[in-house]
Specification:
- With about 190 residues, the chain is α+β, with helices and mostly antiparallel strands.
- It has helices at about 10-15, 25-50, 60-70, 80-90, 100-110, 140-150, 165, 175-180, and strands at about 115-120, 125-130, 155-160.
- It has a three-stranded mixed beta sheet with strand order 1-2-3, covered by helices on one side.
Amino acid sequence: MSDFPITSANGQKMFANLPAYYEKSRVIQVDMNAKGVELDYFTQALNEVLNQFFVSTATWGIEIWEKELDLTVDTSKPIEQRRSVVESKLRGAGKFSGQLVKNVAEVYDGGTVDVSFRPAEYAFTVRFIDTLGIPPNLDDLKAAIEEIKPAHMLVDYKYRYLLIREIQNTMTINQLQQRKLTDFAPFLEE
């Protein structure tokens, strides 16, 4: 190679496929680098557009998904929450069942969720198993479940908190101070 290194990954690939007599040509090296840079930009742009076709990788395209599904576009929410709303809406189609509720809830929560029915009461419970405290986008989850459940059924939510028996003699003061206050069970007056 001469004084003109090819910095583009695509430029290096193209240059490697040329005949050996071009190895010392500064003109060809500069040409391959320029073409390679443009090809790098093109590849990056194609990948960025491809990412918008999948909810889990969509960024600027999440708004298109939201509009297509008749969801409220709220740009103040974090992208992960917006993605979970879209994903939940996509999974929320079909016959109402415990598995459907579980699928929808786990998209919002990102953890394991248990759904139990009480047929005599026309009710069911969504219990968060892995998440400590109240999930950050609970209002969106509640709206999604209200949309998929039959109107006559009641739903209640059970949250998991750290209990004294879980932290006593197992966590240091420093470890406790690192936890969010919302991870601990609230004091309930009877």
